[in-house]
Design goal:
By secondary structure, the protein is α/β, with parallel strands linked by helices. A hairpin with a 6-residue loop joins strand 2 and strand 3.
């Protein structure tokens, strides 16, 4: 008998034994029936503190009360409470033994001596929050729950365990249990272990990839590595941060990068950390800086960049983790900060080590002597200074760098880079900074799921000259009076390739290309993703912006280094910038750019495109960025960093970052997909950039074949002849029995997800199947099979009633399919556009009947019941949004059904009436006309349910908009604040009216 499909219980028994026998944790038992389970087991914590023989009973009692009280704070969000608990664990509980005495520190964990602590596990820990939940394995240190592990059988994905952990942290489950938790883990025997921390989103759960020793089972090896006593405490103590509202734990590359760097800095040796773009280089700096501060006497850290936006980003990163960093204002300020010890953490531009670089490299000594002459009297660098040089491949080997080393002669230099080093610079960089401390290259980061792979596509806009004679004639007429030399200069200026590429007709074609992608590319069309367009100049960027505006594509902005002033008011760029600022009602360019970047990151649907030249191509982290359109000649570091703008993780619907190349930057890509030592990357070593890009069609074919195979395997158990009935029986069970439908929910979710993935990968290469290597007969077979699985999904959704609940979880992926799957585009839009039956009725009216599954068509009674049930479900689901209105719609539907049953309504008349009713339900139209000010659904709901009082409805709406807090729903304090604001605004509102109206408010998406 093999262990294929091994049940979860056997896996759990083995893991419990692993913690007990190999990691040395005490096994506390199976706590499924134990009463009073808690995340702070006072019995074990008190025993540990008493065994230290250095704390009085009063100090011990005070420390226990403090950690309990902090962890039980239910007023705060989980993030804040967990952060407060972490502070006590890491820095000790500050307790005053007697009034008037100084506080003493009670250490609940001995961080320096791991073996001095009590490590234990318990399984099936039943915990009662708002609901009862039972984590599989809980890790306790001195009685404090620091880790939780969910295990799944080998045939169930780790994602199920991750989602279970995430769900358990919600308020309606056992959120209070997670106030002390630091590591949240899930695993099985096929995929191994994934780990995160509290409130980590699913896509950011990471794997621990360490080849320290061989172990047959991945899960066992990773647990032995990550949960080893010293490693566990070290990870919690040194590699967790609370970053701008998000708690983060290190990736393994960050851990080993910092650990390797610790050995270097302790010996005051320099070196280079090369961690690829998007793998968390900034937080690696944070963790290393904090360790240096805490472990090296008199230490100071100076972080140097060579671009203002990077300097600003470094400041934001450290402020985000509550570390005060001083950002120097100018050269004299930098010298002052080096000369005093007021700030242990400083960031600066390398340019502030001198005013201007001389054009002549020979006078470097004279240049540095000039800097020294201007230094304050008795100047010396104060403290044991460690200099972090960000993007160390660029400006840090010239005179400014030499000047820096002269001013801080004893400093230890650590170089950081996210890009491969050029062959020509590699040896020079090693001479300046020292050897590679740690490397984490792009291919490994993609394999680990830390960043996304990139897809490349070359596009061209053919150009031709219509009439050379007319061009010459036009030129001669407009240059009369100029001599031949002047004409030659003019021709040289405008007779360049760049001028040709900047022609208005070409730019317009590219604009149409981009806009078309926003309609057709699923990630862009859904509004969850956005794009960047790299122009070759500020002038061209402005022209692009103007064309986009003229085509009514208005959710875009230009972000460049342009600064309008008194000297350039006649420029075209000036006029376009002024219009852009005026349209946004913002006067200051920096403020405009700040808001544009913020929108781009946080609300991609409201800022769809950023047009850039040089800015934002380094150090700009926007997970929503999905497409990069390149219309600028770039190479080496600039190109590498630019294309990595779209490699960040951002949900299941972002599977790749897309590079659209209009400049033939990768001319030889078709001939040698993995040979990146030519053209754009010719100056890199091949191994250093291997894995950067994948050929789109080769990868597309592989993805499509795998997606089809996965669906075939999923549907293989369906009984023959695999018709509608057999599919419904397999994926729904007995559709009349809600328990049966619920029991089969997991299978249906898997079907929906896999069909959605199939449609995405099919759409990606549907019009290039021949180029991808498919024969005509195979193309036809695949097209039919894709259509078949899409029909299966539609039928299962209709039969199970899932279609409304799951629509919001799957973006609209059908627009491209419309063209390639069916001969009739207009009809396929409904069939393949992921529409619900309600959408079909509103969109197509009576033609909806033709779009129902074949098994339903022909039975008028069945059609009528399907439509009625779906409309009734919509009315029920929408009633909390506007009770008065939808109760009225429910009565209308009931009367219509009664009339149909009595058969006094002709079928055609019935269809017309049901379509009219559906449109009223969806659009909330019909009935007495509302005032023009009642122009949104939220206002309509307030108006309908508050006696149709226009003034009060508007007042309440504006009050809610003004007084609401983020995530107010379910938070008693935030909800009370809104209610009090409404009471102040509408003085005669009764408690009953307020209660009813607030129920409506919480159900409005607008709020």
């Amino acid at each position: 008998m093999t262990d294929v499909g091994q049940i979860e219980r056997k896996t759990q028994d083995r893991i419990v034994a692993l913690f007990r026998d190999r990691l040395g944790y005490e096994y506390l038992g199976n706590w499924v029936e134990r009463e009073g389970n808690n995340n702070i087991e006072v019995k074990y914590l008190r025993k540990y503190l008493e065994n230290q023989n250095k704390y009085s009973k009063k100090l011990i009692d005070g420390a226990i009360i403090k950690i309990q009280k902090t962890s039980e704070n239910q007023i705060q969000e989980l993030f804040e409470t967990n952060k407060d608990v972490y502070g006590i664990l890491r820095y000790g509980a500050k307790i005053r033994e007697r009034l008037g005495e100084n506080h003493k520190t009670v250490w609940l964990i001995d961080w320096e001596n791991p073996e001095n602590n009590h490590f234990a596990i318990a399984e099936e820990v039943t915990f009662k929050g708002k609901r009862v939940k039972r984590p599989d394995v809980v890790l306790y240190v001195n009685g404090i729950a620091l880790g939780v592990l969910e295990l799944k059988r080998s045939t169930v994905t780790v994602s199920e365990g991750i989602r279970q952990n995430i769900g358990n942290q919600k308020d309606e489950y056992i959120k209070s249990f997670f106030t002390t938790i630091q590591l949240v883990m899930a695993g099985n025997d096929t995929e191994g272990l994934r780990y995160g921390t509290t409130q980590t989103e699913e896509e950011y759960y990471s794997l621990w990839n360490e080849d320290s020793f061989k172990e047959e089972k991945r899960l066992d090896r990773q647990l032995l590595q990550l949960c080893e006593k010293k490693r566990l405490l070290e990870t919690i103590h040194d590699f967790i941060v609370f970053d701008s509202g998000i708690k983060k734990v290190c990736y393994y590359n960050q851990y080993f990068g910092v650990k390797a760097a610790q050995e270097y800095v302790q010996k005051h040796d320099g070196g280079i950390i090369w961690h690829t773009q998007g793998s968390g280089k900034s937080l690696t700096m944070v963790w290393l800086a904090k360790w240096i501060r805490e472990n090296i006497t008199d230490s100071r850290v100076l972080i140097i960049t060579d671009r203002d936006e990077l300097d600003e980003q470094i400041e934001m990163v450290f402020h985000g983790v509550d570390e005060q960093i001083y950002r120097t204002k100018h050269s004299n300020d930098l010298i002052k900060q080096i000369n005093i010890k007021d700030n242990w953490l400083v960031c600066s531009l390398v340019q502030k080590f001198g005013r201007k670089e001389s054009a002549d490299e020979k006078d470097i000594e004279k240049y540095i002597e000039g800097i020294k002459r201007n230094l304050p009297e008795n100047f010396s660098a104060k403290g044991d200074i460690f200099v972090f040089v960000d993007e160390c491949h660029r400006s840090h080997t010239g005179k400014l760098h030499r000047a820096m080393k002269e001013l801080i002669q004893k400093a230890t230099l650590i170089g950081f880079t996210g890009t491969p080093l050029l062959k020509a610079d590699k040896q020079k960089s090693i001479e300046v900074f020292g050897p590679f401390i740690h490397t984490y290259k792009y291919g490994q980061a993609v394999k680990d799921g830390v960043v996304l792979d990139l897809r490349y596509e070359a596009r061209r806009v053919p150009q031709k000259i219509s009439s050379r004679e007319k061009i010459d004639k036009w030129f001669d007429e407009r240059t009369k009076g100029l001599n031949d030399t002047a004409k030659a200069v003019l021709k040289k200026r405008w007779g360049t390739m760049q001028s040709l590429l900047s022609s208005g007709s070409r730019l317009e074609k590219i604009v149409f290309d981009v806009i078309d992608d926003f309609y057709n590319k699923p990630r862009l069309a859904s509004g969850r993703g956005n794009a960047m367009l790299v122009a070759s100049s500020i002038s061209e960027a402005c022209r692009y912006y103007e064309i986009f505006q003229n085509k009514s594509f208005t959710k875009c902005a230009v972000v460049t280094s342009y600064e309008p002033g008194a000297l350039n008011t006649e420029d075209r760029e000036y006029a376009i910038y002024q219009k852009m600022l005026a349209d946004s009602f913002i006067k200051d360019i920096k403020e405009f750019e700040r808001i544009a970047k913020e929108k781009f990151i946080k609300t991609p649907g409201q800022m769809q495109l950023l047009i850039v030249v040089d800015k934002l191509l380094t150090g700009f982290d926007a997970p929503s960025a999905s497409y990069l359109y390149v219309d600028k000649n770039m190479q080496d570091h600039r190109l590498f960093q630019a294309i990595c703008r779209v490699n960040r993780l951002d949900g299941d619907d972002k599977e790749y970052g897309y590079i659209i190349d209009y400049r033939d930057l990768f001319k030889k890509l078709e001939k040698a997909v993995t040979d990146y030592t030519s053209e754009a990357f010719e100056n890199y070593n091949k191994a250093d950039v291997l894995g950067l890009l994948k050929d789109r069609l080769d990868e597309g074919r592989k993805d499509l074949d795998e997606a089809l195979e996965a669906l075939r395997a999923l549907c293989e158990p369906v009984d023959e002849p695999k018709d509608t009935i057999s599919y419904i029986q397999f994926f729904c069970g007995d559709v009349e029995n809600p328990y049966s439908v619920k029991e089969n929910e997991v299978k249906r979710v898997k079907l929906y997800k896999q069909v959605g993935h199939l449609l995405r990968v099919y759409a990606d290469i549907a019009n290039e199947m021949s180029k991808a290597g498919y024969k005509n007969e195979k193309i036809s077979t695949i097209r039919d099979e894709v259509k078949h699985f899409e029909q299966v999904r539609i039928e299962i959704r209709l039969a199970s009633g899932d279609y409304i609940d799951l629509k919001k979880h799957e973006p609209d992926m059908r627009m491209l399919i419309d063209r390639y799957v069916s001969a009739s585009e207009s009809k396929v839009i409904s069939t393949f556009d992921d529409m619900t039956l309600i959408d079909l009725i509103v969109e197509k009216g009576k033609d909806v009947v033709n779009d129902l599954p074949e098994s339903v068509i022909g039975d008028r009674t069945a059609i009528a019941e399907v439509i009625e049930n779906n409309v009734r479900r919509l009315i029920v689901d929408e009633t909390p949004n506007n009770p008065v209105y939808f109760q009225q719609m429910s009565v209308i539907l009931d009367n219509l059904v009664k009339r149909r049953i009595k058969e006094d309504v002709e079928y055609q008349d019935y269809l017309n009436k049901i379509i009219e009713l559906t449109r009223k339900v969806v659009n909330q139209g019909g009935g007495p006309p509302r005032p023009p000010t009642i122009d949104t659904r939220a206002k309509q709901a307030l108006y309908d349910n508050f006696g149709q009082n226009e003034k009060k409805a508007i007042t309440i709406h504006e009050t809610v908009i003004r007084s609401k807090y983020a995530d107010f729903r379910g938070n008693p304090i935030k909800e009370r604040a809104i209610k009090n604001a409404i009471r102040e605004a509408v003085l005669d509102i009764t408690d009953k009216e307020l209660k009813n109206i607030f129920e409506i408010i919480v159900n409005q998406d607008e709020y």
